[in-house]
Amino acid sequence: VERTTPPLLFRMEFYSDQKIMVERETALLKKIDINVAESEKRSGKNTVNMQETYTVYLIEIRWVGGLPVGDSPWRRYSEFELLRTYLLVTYPFVVIPPLPEKRAEFVWHKLSADNLDPDFVERRRLGLENFLIRVASHSVLSKDKIFYQFLTEGWREAVLETGFQDKADSRLKSLSATLRVKNPDKSFTDLKQYSDELNSAISHLLRVRAKVADRMYGVYKVHGNYGRIFSEWSAIEKEMGDGLQSAGHHMDTHSASVDDILEEEEHYADQLKEYLFYTDALRSVCRKHELIQYELEMAVLDLASKKQQREELTTGAVRVFSLKGMSSKLFGQESPEQRESRLAALQQSIQASEDAVLDKNQECRQEFMRMSWEEVKRFKEQKDRELREALISYAIMQISMCKKVGDNMGTATCDPHHVTRTM
């Protein structure tokens, strides 16, 4: 099925009141719309043959215009994790979009930390949909065949056949590179510091917001207690009965409104959490660069060592203690033919090492740096734009909430039968 779409560069999408700027210039998003339509709780046996309960999510892909694209697969959260790991390994220079939280973080009193809680599952469903939209809107990631198979068909065998798990850098290897690299690039050092500062700022904001949500919930529910007291009081009062009942009604309405307010706030908190998790993607780019830089430095040291061996073999002068030098003193010098043979083999090894240094230098300082800094620039522009919009929308929501509360309380106060007028 082929469909033609207008040459739109951008389209504003709305997902559960969350505003997401989607770049329509990618070939994939010119043709299809991606939705994580619903979630479903299932039970089954895991890899160690134990019964477990888990959630699966239905991915629906439709051609722009409405027709479905093949079957709609159900995916577990762990499959989304596998897909993201594959993307991290295959495209180490890309700031890979993060997944929503696996378990609730920065929870407050009423918010459940259970990962099977319906409200949490629904927020995660929206987060997984956002993740797929982010990947599909990326000019490089959207062209990946494995990603398209993840959306439309059986994909696990295909992704494992890529051998990406063998290419994945171990944490120990990355840590070793971080500790042992001698000449870290200042730009990536600054990027790591930027990531840490962004993580710290968003974490602090989310912690403060959780405390405020707890206090707000408590204050509103206190009004609910007053509402019950006023209602009971009105039953035993003759002259002030109507006023007390009206005041109790307004207290109850005010108390109940906090649930909708805090539910709407959670959507803004989820947007902040997305960028909190983005900071780990930035660190991943930094770690990959450190590993490439470390491999370059090791290649340079190996080349220098081989050149020194060639010089010692040519001149016969040994600058540092070596087992070879000791064996020469004990068993005599090599014959000219043996020396020539060793020089020839060493020259070939030096040539291979020089090629390796050139390749690593090109990979580290040209290809990886160029592509990763394009990614970082794109990420920062996206972050500035989206967080600005989210915080402005949050401020507007707070102003609207305050006006609504003021109007409700004003109506109660101005009611001619209100208890304050009666008294």
Automatic annotation (TrEMBL):
Pfam families: PX
Entry GO CC: early endosome membrane; plasma membrane; SNARE complex
Recorded superkingdom: Eukaryota
CDD domains associated with the record: PX_SNX4
Keyword Oxidoreductase tagged: no
Any GO BP: protein transport
UniProtKB keywords: Protein transport, Transport
One GO molecular-function entry: phosphatidylinositol-3-phosphate binding
Protein transport in keyword set: yes
Domain PX as annotated: residue spans: 35-158
PANTHER family registered for this protein in UniProt: SORTING NEXIN-4
Family named by the database record: Belongs to the sorting nexin family.
Entry protein name: PX domain-containing protein
Organism this protein belongs to: Gadus morhua
